[in-house]
């Protein structure tokens, strides 16, 4: 299994929306915000 840490720059009010979109990807198992 490959592990990756990805940093995303976004506005504070979009964090929940972006986190949900990333979590919905098939190969993503965890999202931290």
From TrEMBL:
Say which domain of life the source belongs to.
Answer: Bacteria
Q: Under what name is this protein listed?
A: Lrp/AsnC family transcriptional regulator
């Amino acid at each position: 299994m490959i592990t990756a840490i990805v940093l995303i720059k976004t506005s504070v009010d979009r964090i929940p929306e972006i986190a949900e979109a990333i979590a919905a990807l098939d190969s993503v198992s965890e999202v931290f915000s």
